[in-house]
Amino acid sequence: MTEDYKILYDISKEDFETSKLLLENNFYPQSLFYFQQSIEKLIKYLGLKDGIISTKDLSRKISHNSSLIFKKALTKYKSLNNSIVDFDINKEFQELDEIIKKTPDDKVLEVILKNIFDVLKNKPELPFDIEKIKNFEDLYQVLKKISPDMPQLEELRRIDNNKLFKPIAEKMLQDFKASFDEYIQGIIILFYINTISQRLVSTVRYPELDQMINPSEIFNKEHSLVKELPTLHMALEYSLETIKTKENEKTI
């Protein structure tokens, strides 16, 4: 596959900057919409980059339901690490969706923000012991387990076996170990903010059909999501930066 998917990251960044600008100028529903769009495109970028979805899936199966990408990623991950990931993915996602639908925005937001801060304070649990990665062969085996379809795997091994490229291989190993935690944190945070932003795709753009209320009357400066949008922006920016950092390392 070509790397045309990278344009989704660029558009996600543009949508993020647009959301911040709209918030500064008090266009709250519009700011929330571009916030949601930035998250959606970043998730789709990850899905395409890691081979979780194809470009055909974007308009057919996925559309605006970016949670499906997380579900597909977990399904793939579970097939590789069945003893580690022990839960019914469809059931978990359905229960989460029901809870969010039945819970007021401010309560959902409170839980999400708490989870985000918890993620930033604590290292996420990895499907391998990063301390046991001592050399490039260890890294190769880990990558082979978690991303067996990664096209660069054999190239990495050739680099490690070439004395001229040995310093590059060692740097890649150290960079991988140093930044992996932040990368996982960025993805987990992205999952959390997506759970509350996904349903905004229509509600912030169109009036409620039964009462024909302008979204700007609902999503005003007193709305919980609007109040916490600067914090949510910081969370999204963290995800954008850590995910892009990992992409840059991959192309060294």
TrEMBL record:
Pfam families: HEPN. It comes from the Bacteria. InterPro entries: HEPN_dom. Residues 6-88 form the HEPN domain. This is HEPN domain-containing protein. It comes from Sunxiuqinia elliptica. The lineage of its organism: Bacteria, Pseudomonadati, Bacteroidota, Bacteroidia, Marinilabiliales.
